[in-house]
Amino acid sequence: MLGVVAAYILDLLVGDPRWLPHPVVIMGKIIAGLEKILRRVARSPLSLRIAGVVLASMVVGSSYLAVHFLVRLAALVHPWLALGLEVWLIATTFAVRGLAGAARGVLLSLSRGDLDLARRQVSYIVGRDTHAMDVREMTRATVETVAENIVDGFVSPLFYALIGGAPLAMAYRAVNTLDSMVGYRNDLYRDLGWASARLDDVANFLPARWTGLLLVAAAWLSGRRAGGAWQVIRKDARRHPSPNSGIPEAAIAGALGVRLGGLNYYGGRASFRAYLNESGHPPQVDHIRQAVDMLYLTAALAVISGLAVKLIFCSLL
């Protein structure tokens, strides 16, 4: 448990320094390489679905085993080396500092009126087209991204780190990386990415609902609309195309009193996402700062509540 706390603090202090190798980069290269190999042998929709299961199994399984044996090997050298390695590996699965920094970069550019830079910064954190976004669209995109990534950028890896340490946290990060690379519903990935997308839905199911409760608590503690957060979760979360992302986005919409969702463009094609808190106001630039504040408070509450539950559980064994 101390390793998880240390990893949380490490992420807050240093994030992901560019000069350090990051496991997700390695995962990405492995996924891309395996995809090329599997596409050579799988042609039909059924064979591509089977290949997708193989891809997900290999990447997630190898991520778990690699970290497990790395930590075991480090323990043979010295227990402190193993602890330090585990702390660093868990910290690489967290993204609180990185997410907050990216959102604040957009906030700063919008505040200065540098819309071209803001569009470029937004393009780093969303998959939608950004070249024609106005201030309101960039603000909404950033708030939605902060809300959604509270789950897969912190609460989910924390959840799995508390259960199974660095190996399980890294296995979760592999699931999330697979989903971000191949878990699309377009013609190219509908079959090959099916298993990865479903696995990501399952992996985030409990953490997303935990996050919803945490966001309501964070709204109450920060003097925001806790009741609104809860009501919008209950009313609108299921309208989101993702079974999990709708919960934190609805909570943020209710807590900040803003309307999220609406028209987005992907590769030049329009896609309308149902409104969350339709009666709310369009988000203003300052709502980015408020969303980041909610991110930090929710992360702290997740650590505190997660440790409390684990201590209670361990005391009962």
UniProtKB/TrEMBL annotation:
UniProt pathway annotation: Cofactor biosynthesis; adenosylcobalamin biosynthesis
UniProt keyword terms in alphabetical order: Cell membrane, Cobalamin biosynthesis, Membrane, Transmembrane, Transmembrane helix
Membrane topology qualifier: Multi-pass membrane protein
Compartments where found: Cell membrane
A GO cellular-component term linked to this record: plasma membrane
Gene Ontology MF: a single term: ABC-type vitamin B12 transporter activity
GO terms of biological process kind: cobalamin biosynthetic process
Transmembrane feature ranges: 50-75, 87-110, 294-313
InterPro entries noted in UniProt: Cobalamin_biosynth_CobD/CbiB
Protein name: Cobalamin biosynthesis protein CobD
Native source organism of the sequence: Desulfofundulus thermosubterraneus DSM 16057
Taxonomy of the source species: Bacteria, Bacillati, Bacillota, Clostridia, Eubacteriales
